[in-house]
Amino acid sequence: MAERPGSRHRSLYKLMGSPPWKEAFRQLEEPMDLAVLEEIQQELIDQEQSIISEYEKSLQFDEQCLSVMLAEWEANPLICPVCTKYNLRVASGLVVCQCGLYIQSHACDTWAVIL
Predict the structure, then answer these.
(1) Rounded to 5°, angle at Cα 45 from 41 and 51
(2) Where does the sequence pass through the membrane (predicted)?
């Protein structure tokens, strides 16, 4: 095979490695990159902890609201307006009474838990 005219020069250049100024620049650049990456990682960790904390506060608030609603429901049960004898309850998306009354409910599932 015929060798290209510039390939010998190129092979010598490749054997020598990178110029010294490039190596010096890489050595300075790497710690800076690590510091930046560590800073970004710390910011992400802080952000994640903030989100988790906010989520936990939201859960506590929801639990408190549910407790209050359950306490009010237990204190004041809803009596059937038809028979005025039995309490209403929610089952499978229906508001039902023992007297036979049933009304389709489009309320969210949390009301089923409350009732």
Answers:
(1) 145
(2) none
With H, G, I as helix, E, B as strand and everything else as coil, classify residue 44.
helix
Structure tokens at 7: 């390939």
User: Could you tell me which of 96, 92, 85 has the C-alpha nearest to residue 106?
Assistant: 92
Going along the chain, which residue ranges are E strands?
89-91, 94-96, 102-104
The 10s digit of each residue's pLDDT in 12-65 is 555 566 666 666 666 655 666 778 889 999 999 999 999 999 999 999 999 999
Compute the distance between CA of residue 49 and CA of residue 43 in angstroms, rounded to an integer: 10
Position of tokens 């059937």? 80
**Six-digit token string for 61:** 């608030």
Any residues with CB less than 8 A from the CB of 104 and at least 6 apart, and which?
A: 93, 94
